[in-house]
Amino acid sequence: MAEHHILLMDGPDHKGLIYQVTRILFEHNQNVIRNDEYVSPSGYFFMRTAFSGDVVVADLLQILKKELPEGLNLRINPNKKKDIVVMVTKEHHCLGDLLIRYAFDELDANILAVVSNYNILQPLVSKFGIPFHYITHENRTREEHEEAILRTLDVYRPEFLVLAKYMRIITPTFVDQFPNRIVNIHHSFLPAFIGANPYRQAYERGVKIIGATAHFVNNHLDEGPIIAQDVKSVDHRQTASDMATLGKETEKSVLSKALKLVFNDRVFIHQNRTIIL
Amino acid sequence: MAEHHILLMDGPDHKGLIYQVTRILFEHNQNVIRNDEYVSPSGYFFMRTAFSGDVVVADLLQILKKELPEGLNLRINPNKKKDIVVMVTKEHHCLGDLLIRYAFDELDANILAVVSNYNILQPLVSKFGIPFHYITHENRTREEHEEAILRTLDVYRPEFLVLAKYMRIITPTFVDQFPNRIVNIHHSFLPAFIGANPYRQAYERGVKIIGATAHFVNNHLDEGPIIAQDVKSVDHRQTASDMATLGKETEKSVLSKALKLVFNDRVFIHQNRTIIL
Amino acid sequence: MAEHHILLMDGPDHKGLIYQVTRILFEHNQNVIRNDEYVSPSGYFFMRTAFSGDVVVADLLQILKKELPEGLNLRINPNKKKDIVVMVTKEHHCLGDLLIRYAFDELDANILAVVSNYNILQPLVSKFGIPFHYITHENRTREEHEEAILRTLDVYRPEFLVLAKYMRIITPTFVDQFPNRIVNIHHSFLPAFIGANPYRQAYERGVKIIGATAHFVNNHLDEGPIIAQDVKSVDHRQTASDMATLGKETEKSVLSKALKLVFNDRVFIHQNRTIIL
Amino acid sequence: MAEHHILLMDGPDHKGLIYQVTRILFEHNQNVIRNDEYVSPSGYFFMRTAFSGDVVVADLLQILKKELPEGLNLRINPNKKKDIVVMVTKEHHCLGDLLIRYAFDELDANILAVVSNYNILQPLVSKFGIPFHYITHENRTREEHEEAILRTLDVYRPEFLVLAKYMRIITPTFVDQFPNRIVNIHHSFLPAFIGANPYRQAYERGVKIIGATAHFVNNHLDEGPIIAQDVKSVDHRQTASDMATLGKETEKSVLSKALKLVFNDRVFIHQNRTIIL
């Protein structure tokens, strides 16, 4: 993470946008380290510019907003680790992977806490000295449960929530608190096999390839923008249970790959699709 | 294709089945070249045994049927190329690949003829000296069209029909003429994106991986047993049209892989899944 | 190939290069359709800019050269198909694939002729109405053979030579005639298994993955810049001959992928590596 | 691991071998759960038979040895976890993965201890309550260092040694103590890029794919039988350091996959190749 600032910009395309932005950075003695842009077929512009140099970020942002056409979204992110909270249920494979990476400073994020509706993974989390909040959903309505979680999250104020096999449906009310800031790993190669027991479904359909999908969460279950996907080959010898085991490997690596992209400010969202620069 | 005979056997599992079969072959001086078997979790047995030796196949089959438990399906296939007819519409990528392989004797099948509801691919087929039957669907009901095709197929009596991008729905009546003998290449990673314009659907859903599926055709459209699947990675830069181009590459290689398995008698069908030995 | 012009630029990085180029294009009413750039860790700059608009290309190039820092390589390519000659020996798999693509206008290149040191593939090439030059290496020294080929190539003046399984070593003298303009498909996952019979080597080493490599040819055999690579999984059941069959599939698709990149002006070469924008 | 016993058998092929083995198991009331066999092109036979039933294993083995042709290697393994010691140097990625799996009983092995020539990974290992032996190589000859390690291993008597990024060359004397019982993860797609800093080599060669190899260790460094390999795509934007990061992911998953095969008695070794049944 050697880049000093990340300018993120998206909006309707205008002739000369790259020119205007690079001119302004040039005139303010900023050194462009890496520049990636994309214009969609429908004429929507995306740009991620990593740059370094002495500058008051707020002032530069002001100048950019003034000199560039209206209607553009502009942000300048500092080059620092994101603060996150991880939510889990009972499965350890994704969480274990995140904890090991975090312990060796490879996650590009600070895990502020782990929240779970079971206490099964508490011993694992404790090994790494991270707060674990066991918030059961038993004897609580869905709303009460989510409120309890939100009260806990309020203490940590995470930039991103990572659902690392959190197996509860979350409500639009909850999602609205973290717009485009919740990343989920889905136990399937979306859009196939939505719903319960996808590996059983995959087995019964006799597929030759299974996969996993990391995506942002929006109000439509399993339908948020896809960040990363990967697959593994299977054959008839694999039972539904074998497929589940193999699927976990894929979930682990796909989530890790997606988080790296998100935490490095490389993911734009537009019309329910991701643009990754 | 150096194996002399292929014994194919499936049915409810019994203790000692492998022993009984290998004993009978041993006692009749047959040399087992390769033996593959599989027992499903529900107790269904599959075995493919390649063997060589002087033997009257019909007699051997009789003996096997007599000495083995009842209720088993038993076949002994000669080790020879399958006779096939290829059906296409307008797209050339799968057909072109099959023709080149056939021209250089790599297909493990004889292409007896190509049937199409358009005459677009006639020039290509003619280069390879194979009969091309243009049977338009215009001014014909679906039934009339299929009957015309069936009359043509009747001349060739193919063992397998290969739908190499044949873009017409076929009726149960037609399918019934070729039970488990029609192989289709589907322009999607089944079970996702069934229906028209799958690459447009894939683009709009923003998937990061697209694929293709080769499967047997049964009476439920797109739901026959899957033989082979493969995928390719895509990103936001690919338009629906780019995805279609890339998808064709996948279709071509997946169909080719599936046909090799089918033509070498390696594919069993059971409960709408394939067992590939 | 809807882009009208492709500006290709590489050289030592300077602050503001993107800004200067986009400014000049903007001032001359050119519309940037797609812009990709890369700066290597050692500070070397690469940019590919697709743009459209009414312009006299030679004049624009003059202006760019005048206004940009010295030491940059600058080209503006028209958006047209490349002229190529394909060289082969006895194997048909790559050639067959190129011919089918060419026949259906999918190659982004014109195949002017096919040259071979055997006449085995003449019947295939003839089906497609393309000149076939059989230039045997028998009773000729290597130099005499290459001179004969060069005389033939001189008639066609191809922009690129494609070695689609041309199994003769070519000399530096020959290579020098086509600097960075010869693309070869190598029957191995370079840098492993250089030399004769790579699939036998792979089999004996018991590898679990085999691959193929498309690369530019330079004076060091098998060591030119790599354009594309791909692999397939194998296991102990595959003989060296099976691996060769599977390897051909990979060769075919890797060569096709590499040529698409080259013919679309997307490949830069720098310090024996390719930069693909 | 529901199978009760695993019969492993290899040797020169004889007509009727499968028949003889299945007959003997049948006559002794053993139920064959899964049977896999392979005959190499050179006529060497391999078979792995999982079976269950009440039996005195030593007696059954005696009978098999008596009734089957001479010259066969025969073992019957109980269906139990292997005892292993893991050896590491400084890198945590493979070890971390093994520890998480072990903690959740997914490794099919007991980690008796971790041995390292550095103490860097001691804190990680301690979290999981496993003995960590720091045995420095400093101020010791290679022989003295290995003797110190062997004395430690002698206490644990592991069935397998897992080199999970142990970065010291081990001598033939050491290897001889664990014939075909040491599994190493190699930071390269063997046989390419043998030696130091493979990712730097890969970067400089400009490869488009990198990989990792898990193999048994024999006396020729990096040349033991390959168990598993996998690859990931890279492009010019990846620095040697990025490639190393990506390579670690591959190392982690390849080692895990190979160990699962080894610990489940699925790997035979013959003429420096593995046969995986």
UniProtKB/TrEMBL annotation, chains A, B, C, D:
One Pfam family per UniProt: Formyl_trans_N
Hydrolase in keyword set: yes
Presence of the UniProt keyword Hydrolase in the record: yes
Pathway: Purine metabolism; IMP biosynthesis via de novo pathway; formate from 10-formyl-5,6,7,8-tetrahydrofolate: step 1/1
GO BP terms, alphabetized: 'de novo' IMP biosynthetic process; one-carbon metabolic process
Keywords attached to this entry: Hydrolase, One-carbon metabolism, Purine biosynthesis
Residue ranges constituting the ACT domain according to the UniProt record: 6-79
The protein's Enzyme Commission number: 3.5.1.10
InterPro entries membership: ACT-like_dom_sf, ACT_dom, Formyl_transf_N, Formyl_transf_N_sf, PurU
Residue positions of the active site: D222
GO MF assignments: formyltetrahydrofolate deformylase activity
Protein family according to the UniProt entry: Belongs to the PurU family.
Function of the protein: Catalyzes the hydrolysis of 10-formyltetrahydrofolate (formyl-FH4) to formate and tetrahydrofolate (FH4).
Protein name: Formyltetrahydrofolate deformylase
Organism of derivation: Dyadobacter jejuensis
Gene from which the chain derives: purU
